[in-house]
Amino acid sequence: MTYKKSVKVVLASVLFLLTPTMVWAASGKDYEEVSYDDLLTELTSKKQKLQHDNNVGETPRLHIGIGYANSFSNISTGGEKFSRHATGIQINAGTDLISPEWYAEGIFRNYGSNTEGTEDYSLRELEGKIGYTNLLQNVWHYTISTGVSNRFMKFSDSSRNINVDESTPSLVISTGILAQVHRNLSIGAEISGRTAMVNRSADQNSFDFAFRLNTSL
Predict the structure, then answer these.
(1) Are residues 46 and 145 both part of a single domain?
(2) What pTM was computed for the model?
(3) What is the residue range of 108's domain?
């Protein structure tokens, strides 16, 4: 056996003896000696933490928000047709369903009372729907939802002998775009179209536009 071969055999034997018991970790120019048991314990701890984080991420989250809403309504009564605009505040609350992409949501809107001359117009609304949301690009997400609403409308004009006080169930379809500015905070806008589910109603159809601020718990 030559001298070079002898050196190679010795080096290989030393590395073989040291490998099962010690691991050398480098950080810049500093070296830290870590035992095999310590390394195994650290890996096990990280695995348990990852599993815990995944389980937390699968827990359905609650969503609460507030918004500024605009309603454009078409009213048909007494052989006449009217278009009226109202602004108000909306409050929404919801929860994740089978996944974070699917959600159920309830919304209450209050447009208050609007008086102009002899005319008085007031509107409130309760809405429930199921929606889907997903990533569009970067922080932007889109939403699509559908459901039903019940609109409580009062519309009167003493000069025209008009007096409407109705509660109208309607079909709702909505879409919107949201910016996820924080893990638990998003801002955006949503548009909704609705049509009455009954024929004999003065409140036949409407269009809504709302700015929204949502938080997740």
Answers:
(1) no
(2) 0.72
(3) 62-216
